[in-house]
Batch of 4 targets.
Target 1
Amino acid sequence: MLYDIPMEDRPEAPEIARAEETLSELLKRVEDPDLREEIDRASGRVGYLRRAEGYAAGILAALEDR
């Protein structure tokens, strides 16, 4: 099961690390601290919802295999 694999050993880990670094570098270019914080929070929310969506899809797939 994917969630039994440590995060650093997952196949998508390098891509996630690159995306986080890119986001961090882009946020440094935003001078308005309030806007920077809003963008950071919004990207975090998108990430959270993507994980939740994947989790739900996995549960549905497991139920279909029954």
Target 2
Amino acid sequence: MKEGKELYKPGELPAGTHVEPCPVCGADAQLWQYSADFKAGPIEKVLMCSNGEKFGPQDGLTNEGCLLYMPPQDFYRGRIVEAVKYWNEYAKALNAQRRQRNWQRAQVLRETPPNVELNGAPLAARPSDRRERV
């Protein structure tokens, strides 16, 4: 995360805090503090994806990196524990949805066509079948 106009400052997670990897790209998450005025406050805490690298058709500084490199306002919380809880719950929920959809999408790969034995070899491809035909 690049600091701009001192709106963001890196934060430090308490020892032993578990943070899920980014549910979009799998990169580590980082704690940041956000405030328009760090002296007068308020200071919000937010976990952000650490992947700010340009990929695919992205262009410009504001459009580079993972979608959670600059997450929506819902991720900004008053306390570190709340920011971590929101990030982890979001990550777990998104990953659960992805696993379920992948399982449903892969259903066709688990189906056994009627002309295939359980070991995966088609009946016509069995060596004993070829001998009988000769």
Target 3
Amino acid sequence: MKNFNGHLLRLFILAEHLQGGKLYLDYIFLSEIWTLEEPPEAVGSNNICHTCFPFVFSELPSLFHEFEQLPHGIIVYRPDRSLEVDLALMEFMGLSPYEFYYCFIPGHQNELSGDNGLSIHATPEEVGQHLIRFIQDKLDNK
């Protein structure tokens, strides 16, 4: 791939890490947190958006020094600790809200690509592959 800007490079690092399948932390599947019939509140007890994939957020401090996991498990964005982690990820990766939903929220992929996209059962590898396709589309459309 060519012509990476800083934001796309960050997204690529995350995608490659997820695609590799060797995560630094244990995680649970999103499908273990909620079902499509009964989604919980948007932000859960660990300051993690429960409509996103937990393994995405849990890996950020291991990949990027801008994120930190506090002793009680909450992940914070060092440049602005007041930001919720999903908004911080959006800012850090340079994504619009629409792109963020496309990349990380199950069921929002068909709006841009026409495919069924990611399910709540998606694995880290599948999310990584999805992010690689997103990056390639962005590079192809420059």
Target 4
Amino acid sequence: MKNLILGYERGRNKWETIHRALLDIGQEADVVVEDFDKIEGPYDRIITVAESLLPIQAELEKKWGLSNLSIESANILSDKKLMDDFCISIGLESLIPDSVIPKSPSDLDIFKDRPFIIKPTIGSGTKQQRSFDYVTFNNQEDFLQTVDDSFFEDNNRGYDQTSFNNRTSYYMAQEQLPIEADLYAPYYYGKNNILWVKSNIAVNKIDEYSYETRCSSWMSIPTDAVPIDIKAEAQMFIDAITDELQLKDMFFSGPDYYKWGSNIKLIDANPRLGQGLQIINIIHDYTIIPKILSGKPFSIKNHFLWKISTLKPGRIKSISDTSHLSEHLARTNRKIKPGMIIPEFQHTQMDGFRQALYIKGTNESDMLKTYETVNAQLQDCIEYY
């Protein structure tokens, strides 16, 4: 089978993972990260590792007579607001947070007395292009204190996202789900559940009007450790999305399920390979994803804790050798150098200083103990001004 992998250069860790897995099972694979309009085919299968490129996958599949992803489905899956609205239209409204694309101040009336997060409809992660990207505001009035009319004028026109396939994006205001909620996320290939993870949410107060919420850790857990109602809602969701959008074999990372009391809501269903599955693949000697792609059975014997380090804030004077910790340092970490400033608030997707630790184990308590040990050893390597 001849495969085409679509991605961006900045997403090297994702497309390299898929490329390696395909070669391991004896299949051909080409990676394209630019000049998407110059792709020559045909190919037997397309795997896209960045959701903003799904419309290109759909166009190519139509051209080559493949039937995994329609153009309409690609547009829905790659746009947060379209995805929310689609889910509501097929009867999943109880799981979907309230949201709106605000084009005038009155559009935010639904958030008069409750918090909401501002996020672009196109894009992934929590990358900040503007000061209010992925920021939560206490309520409508507090948001209006921090922006002027130009926000609404710009949001009527939309923004061309050059780093996301030149897609036109808008800002959506979405209900901020409770920070005290329990958070679980599944990984899928097609309708088949591969893995579950749980997360801890950290909060950083920005000012009197706003704050940011980010995940400070992810831990893979056995399926039987996931609440029964979460598993039931998650399977109903992936079955409905797959059937209604007529999807075949696609990776899904998420959605993130928030559970508080008897309430369950979801955000961020990412139709691509996710970090958690990549880690599970690594700690099982790169055997999990090849088996998934070839339809062979697999078992998860080890788990992981992916948690941001809790280093003392301050400016680094010197850093000693950390090679003895290399197996626990995330590949996507920034190299620690003298002069760097360690901030008080860190999270797993930040662009600045970030030291995430990978811990492999079989149970939660042992992984947490190992994390504390490794974090202390890394701290001992750092001298401050």
